[in-house]
Amino acid sequence: MPMKKVMKGNEAAAWAAKLAKPKVVAAFPITPSTLVPEKISEFVADGEMDAEFIKVESEHSAISACVGASAAGVRTFTATASQGLALMHEVLFIAAGMRLPIVMAIGNRALSAPINIWNDWQDTISERDTGWMQFYAENNQEALDLILIAFKVAEDERVLLPAMVGFDAFILTHTVEPVEIPDQEVVDEFLGEYVPKHAYLDPARPITQGALGFPAHYMEARYTVWEAMENARKVIKEVFDEFEKKFGRRYHMIEEYKTDDAEIILLTMGSLAGTLKEFVDKKREEGIKIGAAKMTVYRPFPIEEIRALAKKAKVLAILEKDISFGIGGAVFADTSRALINEKEKPIMLDFILGLGGRDVTFENLEEVVEISKKALEGEKVEEINWIGLRKEIL
Amino acid sequence: MAESPFKADIERVQKEYSEKMTPGAIVYIPGSSVVNKTGGWRVFMPKFNKDKCVRCFMCYTLCPEPAIYLDEESYPVFDYDYCKGCGICANECPTKAIEMVRESK
Ligand code: SF4
Ligand code: SF4
């Protein structure tokens, strides 16, 4: 029987790692994810987890150790956040280029300067072009589930790409919620043992990994990463189906909430989706046709699902906790790309909010709806809006 | 640099590589370390004095390059194709049987 435990998001991630049975976990502590390796170290010390737990002196080394372990042919896990992820940056490309199915839990946190340990998504979104798949969890249960899903997708022969699972700093990492811990046997059935097909060490089969790629080969190598990411769309959906059969919880590339007759749809990722659902219910009571959507998978970008969603809306408002300087929100830019050649598209508005852990309140969301309503009525409004910004102190 | 003993392998792999990309761009031969001799970086080279050696294996164990072999009598033999001249062996040798000398052509 699956058991329910009340736990923090970080613990849920550690539990997911325990259930997935990685052979190597390498990590360096960083707020707000420190508890993930801490909990894993306890599991290993208590003999509940049979993994090599490597303590390193930086995140760059943590991910490098993971690349080494994964290239040697074992299931590998790590966790980090923010500046730690940024310090891993160059190795992230290597992991994806070498097609190593490493899974990493991220407590989504803002980047410096100024130093800020609270939640937004600038860390993972900055890594969107590395070739890592990206999943975003709405709650602690999703953090656990998506890590298991990430392993399954990453290790699929059609994919073989690393994956990161983001869950919002403090909002999830340090908040206790009831989480269902699936049975080990069911997880074993779902994941199976990782049997490396391409990357493993064998004295009878000497190979060079991460070798020089001449101009005659490099482009093809990069294309295969692109192709793998394209394959991932299909594989993720298959794995979502299988996950539902085994564990009873359903995941979607984009999960919709009351969108069928909605004129305004608010699209977001992560824990904010929970707030949006409540907000939608409130606005529905006031008779406003509004819906919400949550992007669970950000890489590969759910292009088809965005197109289907956009057909339902007159205004598509994107609420994102990140900023790509010089253009606007990254999710907004990506969503625009998905819709650029569509004949009919909704009015698209971007809302930058909640950076560095600033609360996203119902008042903020009211403001989003007010601007969206104006746009719906044909009034000219700003395409990119900073919500909750304290202009008076600038 | 002497011709690689893996020349035929390398040519085979390059041919295969240009015909089919492997996942992760793996090359099915051993790494470049067997092909590329790294001794060319050296400024100082270890000079060995057999008379002082007590065969403690410190140099053999601690050489970061594994550039030290043991001969049949367990005396160290330095492989100058790979020795980078870091001097760790000389530093660790308890009997000062290894001396680092400037290497000039
Ligand atoms: S000098 Fe350094 S590399 Fe050369 S043999 Fe001594 S320890 Fe090895
Ligand atoms: S460390 Fe010195 S004494 Fe020991 S084996 Fe090497 S050369 Fe000989």
TrEMBL record, chain A:
InterPro entries reported for this sequence? PFOR_II (IPR033412), Pyruvate:ferred/Flavod_OxRd (IPR050722), Pyruvate_synthase_PorA (IPR053390), Pyrv_Fd/Flavodoxin_OxRdtase_N (IPR002880), THDP-binding (IPR029061), Transketo_C/PFOR_II (IPR009014)
Q: What's the short name of a Pfam family annotated to this entry?
A: POR_N
The residue ranges of the Pyruvate flavodoxin/ferredoxin oxidoreductase pyrimidine binding domain are 16-240
Q: Which reaction does it catalyse?
A: 2 oxidized [2Fe-2S]-[ferredoxin] + pyruvate + CoA = 2 reduced [2Fe-2S]-[ferredoxin] + acetyl-CoA + CO2 + H(+)
Sorted alphabetically, the Gene Ontology BP terms of this entry are:
response to oxidative stress
Recorded GO molecular functions are: pyruvate synthase activity
Identify the EC number(s): 1.2.7.1
Pyruvate:ferredoxin oxidoreductase core domain boundaries? 262-364
Q: Does the keyword Oxidoreductase apply?
A: yes
Keywords in alphabetical order: Oxidoreductase
* Classification via PANTHER family: PYRUVATE-FLAVODOXIN OXIDOREDUCTASE-RELATED
| Known partners and oligomeric status | Heterotetramer of one alpha, one beta, one delta and one gamma chain.
What is the protein name given in its UniProt record? Pyruvate synthase subunit PorA
Q: Which gene encodes it?
A: porA
From TrEMBL, chain B:
The highest taxon in the source lineage is: Archaea
Keyword Transport set for record: yes
Q: Sorted alphabetically, which InterPro entries does this protein's record hold?
A: 4Fe4S_Fe-S-bd, 4Fe4S_Fe_S_CS, PorD_KorD, Pyruvate_synthase_PorD
Q: Where is the 4Fe-4S ferredoxin-type domain?
A: 44-73, 74-103
Claim: 4Fe-4S is one of the keywords in the record: yes
Record GO terms (molecular function):
4 iron, 4 sulfur cluster binding; metal ion binding; oxidoreductase activity, acting on the aldehyde or oxo group of donors, iron-sulfur protein as acceptor
**Oligomeric and partner information:** Heterotetramer of one alpha, one beta, one delta and one gamma chain.
Q: What is this protein called?
A: Pyruvate synthase subunit PorD
Which species expresses this protein natively? Answer: Thermococcus litoralis (strain ATCC 51850 / DSM 5473 / JCM 8560 / NS-C)
